[in-house]
């Protein structure tokens, strides 16, 4: 079975997000002033070959913990769907 | 009213994704072989002050077109919710 995982890896809430601050200033320079806060992370799409949704879930969690997310500074969540 | 926009900015499908290729090799080196394809982009969260959902939608679309996405090589989509 094929699965598609849509993963978001974001800086943890307590951690300062300088990239987000820079983008907010950039938006203000473009006269877009209604943006109160900006947070920027990674969106990762994985195509997985697995025998079940539970196995696919385990593969994605393992990939996030081992490589895709730096758990000291980042947090991750994902949605999984059969394709 | 306050809105939260969850934006995904991804490389267009036809465009080669070297970052994705590198991560796939990295996963294989970690004995995670069930990953057929990897695509990597940005996940951006914007907190918006707007009078209506339609106005918030316009602000986010404008921000994406002007700054957050490079429309030559990237495509974007987003979900908007009142907070």
Automatic annotation (TrEMBL), chains A, B:
Alphabetized, the UniProt keywords read: ATP-binding, Cytoplasm, Ligase, Nucleotide-binding, Purine biosynthesis
Instruction: Tell me any Pfam family this protein matches.
Output: PurS
Work out whether the entry's keyword set contains Hydrolase: no
- UniProt-listed Enzyme Commission number(s): 6.3.5.3
Q: Per its UniProt entry, which superkingdom is the organism in?
A: Bacteria
Q: Where is it located?
A: Cytoplasm
GO molecular function term, any single one: phosphoribosylformylglycinamidine synthase activity
Known PANTHER family for this protein? PHOSPHORIBOSYLFORMYLGLYCINAMIDINE SYNTHASE SUBUNIT PURS
Indicate the quaternary assembly.
Part of the FGAM synthase complex composed of 1 PurL, 1 PurQ and 2 PurS subunits.
Its function, per the record, reads: Part of the phosphoribosylformylglycinamidine synthase complex involved in the purines biosynthetic pathway. Catalyzes the ATP-dependent conversion of formylglycinamide ribonucleotide (FGAR) and glutamine to yield formylglycinamidine ribonucleotide (FGAM) and glutamate. The FGAM synthase complex is composed of three subunits. PurQ produces an ammonia molecule by converting glutamine to glutamate. PurL transfers the ammonia molecule to FGAR to form FGAM in an ATP-dependent manner.
Q: What is this protein called?
A: Phosphoribosylformylglycinamidine synthase subunit PurS
Species = Aquirufa beregesia
As recorded in Swiss-Prot or TrEMBL, the protein's gene is named purS
């Amino acid at each position: 079975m094929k699965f598609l995982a849509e993963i978001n890896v974001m800086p943890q809430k307590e951690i300062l997000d300088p990239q987000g601050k820079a983008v907010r200033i950039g938006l203000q320079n473009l006269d877009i002033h209604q943006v109160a806060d900006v947070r920027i992370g990674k969106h990762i799409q994985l195509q997985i070959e697995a025998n079940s949704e539970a196995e696919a879930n385990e593969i994605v969690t393992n990939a996030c913990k081992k490589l895709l997310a730096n758990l000291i500074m980042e947090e991750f969540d994902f949605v999984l769907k059969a394709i």
